[in-house]
Amino acid sequence: MNPRKVLLLTASPDPEGNTAVMAKEFAEAASARGAVVTRYDMATVSGEGCRACMACRTVSDHCVVEDGVGEVLRAFIDTDVLVMAAPVWFLEFPCSIRRFVERWHALLTAAFESRLPSGKKAVLLISQGGAEGEFKELPARYVEMLGWLGVADIQIVRHCNAEECPVHERGEILDDVRDAAVHALG
After folding, report:
1. 119: exposed, middle or buried (Cβ count in 10 Å: 0-12, 13-18, 19+)
2. Could you read off the pLDDT tens digit of each residue along the chain, which spans 186 residues?
């Protein structure tokens, strides 16, 4: 049996930040289960968001823009599990990962049918300064967008109150991250 493929995207430029710690824990747990983990630190990936050129609908069945974000998009098509580790900045994920999400436009036909192979899973690892009750609409919006792509098995691990309590001090959150890896690969 081929090992499961995990595409791990980080969105913070801080290599020691909360989402980086969460991403590292997930990668270690996934690797321990035999998965092949490919990681992109999106803050260092060159490229842009969707140009709305519509080439993916008129002359091609994929995004025609050739840049680093396009490389990540192609990796998504070929992966089993997408993991996005992102902080919440001003009610949204950073633009480094939003560029990738905008390019999902090319993963849908004009009839809004997914071009992705079925059976993909996703995990959102989120760190936010706000309390548990705040910003719940953000992960819900990403669950909806992933649903458009046919990704139904989506897990969310939220680290709240991040400014008062860094994730490395929150063992239960890191346990949840490791459990998410087990579930995604199970």
Report:
1. exposed
2. 789 999 999 999 898 999 999 999 999 999 999 999 999 999 999 999 999 999 999 999 999 999 999 999 999 999 999 999 999 998 999 999 999 999 999 999 999 999 999 999 999 999 999 999 999 999 999 999 999 999 999 999 999 999 899 999 999 999 999 999 999 998
Listed by start position, the domains of the chain span 5-185
Q: Which CATH number fits domain 5-185: 3.10.129.10, 3.40.50.300, 3.30.565.10, 3.40.50.360?
A: 3.40.50.360
Alpha helices in the chain (DSSP H): 18-32, 55-58, 68-77, 95-102, 137-148, 171-185
Residue 68, both tokens: 């680093």
pTM: 0.96
